[in-house]
From TrEMBL:
This is 2-octaprenyl-6-methoxyphenyl hydroxylase. Pathway: Cofactor biosynthesis; ubiquinone biosynthesis. Its EC number is 1.14.13.-. Pfam families: FAD_binding_3 (PF01494). The keyword Oxidoreductase applies.
């Protein structure tokens, strides 16, 4: 394939890119969409019996993300292996401050869910197989040039590089690929001098579908319920922030010593830690792009903003942004305009901007506030946690942010609307 034509090219077929492709197939089927991805679209996408690995990586989905997947007709399948978060417990280690959220207080089945990334990917692949989405794999986008008709995208397939002409390029391959920088987008980076260690752990006590957000003098940590969607079990997903020295120490420990160190940091709210699985880790950096759109190209997901995982907001923020972009593309089709029209992409950016700014501020402020050990600041945040637990109005706002329902936009059944839950 030396030259070809399509409307939208999505660089990256991971969770963000595949979700965008599926949403476009359902909302704007007149658009021709091609996904450029390193892994092929398998005809064996969804096995008859799925058995998640103990070491499987997972994502926390907010309630608002469930609503998005329902609109895409995907939630029924995803929910087969989605562990509900029915309670959230936020505490400050060694101090009295704490707040609790319960799904029943807000007439919800759950505040969110924990889902294996592989299972979500398989569900997306199966749905995509039933669409007209073109899947180019294994392949990668290596460059792009603007033209009068839109963009000319260099796609490397094996040892050959082809040119694919399109009206719009969407960069959805994460924040580490280098394509964003190669295309000249300016990024802002703020390092936290911390690393996230991710692992699955087992405890002697059942999680009872509770997510724990624990702030310690060494950094925040979270334990999210994992396993059966209907029976509370003993497995949780650990997100543990460590500085470079602590990370090196922990990685060099035996499993029993890792459990002991984790016990010291987290405490006994889930009883004794009995097992810790394979440990993945990465440095924590807040990355934003002030202008993630230009004529014919837009950044989405982690390519546009990468957050600290403390509040589990990253993928949920990305999903809301994808739906905002899909709605603008739907309107472009209705109006006979190109999806790469700068005004279309600019409108997407302006609509999504308040959401990502507020979410970045929310996540970043948690780190800054709980990162101080000075007595007056610690006392003030403890009072804030207690007040949050006692004041219904403040607690409702906090819950809406945690559930990802504030400002959510529905696009499947017509014009975008705000979710008023």
């Amino acid at each position: 394939m030396k030259h070809s034509d399509t409307d939208v090219i999505i660089a990256g077929g991971g969770l963000a890119g595949a979700t965008l492709a599926l949403a476009l197939a359902k909302v704007a089927p007149a658009l021709r969409v091609a996904v450029v991805e390193a892994f092929p679209l398998s005809t064996d996408a969804l096995p008859d019996a799925y058995q998640p690995s103990y070491d499987a990586r997972s994502t926390a989905l907010a309630w608002g993300s469930r609503l998005i997947f329902e609109e895409l007709g995907l939630w029924q399948r995803i929910s087969e292996h989605a562990t509900p978060i029915q309670h959230i417990h936020v505490s400050d280690r060694g101090r009295f401050g704490a707040t609790r959220l319960n799904a029943s207080e807000f007439q919800q089945q759950a505040l969110g869910y924990v889902v294996d990334n592989r299972w979500m990917g398989l569900c997306l692949m199966r749905e995509l197989l039933a669409t007209n989405i073109q899947w180019l794999a294994p392949a990668e986008v290596t460059d792009m040039a603007s033209s009068e008709q839109g963009v000319s995208v260099a796609v490397k397939i094996g040892s050959e590089t082809s040119t694919l002409k399109a009206k719009c390029l969407i960069v959805a391959d994460g924040g580490r690929s280098g394509l964003r920088e190669k295309l000249g987008f300016q990024t802002n980076h703020h390092g936290y001098d911390q690393n996230a260690l991710i692992a699955n752990v087992s405890t002697s006590d059942s999680h009872e579908f509770t997510a724990f957000e624990r702030f310690t003098d060494a950094g925040p940590m979270a334990l999210l319920p994992h396993g059966s969607p209907s029976r509370a079990g003993h497995q949780s997903v650990l997100v543990w922030t460590l500085n470079d020295r602590e990370l090196e120490e922990v990685l060099g420990m035996s499993e029993s010593d890792k459990c002991q160190r984790l016990q010291e940091r987290f405490g006994w709210r889930l009883g004794r830690f009995t097992r810790i699985g394979e440990c993945n880790h990465y440095p924590l950096t807040l990355t934003t792009v002030d202008e993630p759109v230009r004529p014919g190209v837009a950044l989405v997901g982690n390519a546009a903003h990468a957050l600290h995982p403390v509040a589990g907001q990253g993928f949920n923020l990305a999903l809301r942004g994808l739906m905002t972009l899909v709605e603008q593309f739907r309107l472009a089709v209705e109006q006979g305009r190109s999806p790469g029209d700068f005004q279309i992409l600019r409108c997407y950016h302006e609509l999504h901007k308040p959401d990502w700014q507020q979410t970045v501020q929310f996540s970043d402020s948690l780190i800054r506030i709980f990162g101080h050990s000075l007595a007056p600041i610690a006392a003030a945040r403890d009072a804030g946690l207690v007040g949050l637990d006692l004041l219904p109005g403040a607690k409702r706002l906090f819950a809406r942010k945690a559930m990802g329902t504030a400002g959510r936009r529905a696009v499947i059944n017509g014009p975008a609307t705000s979710d008023k839950q």
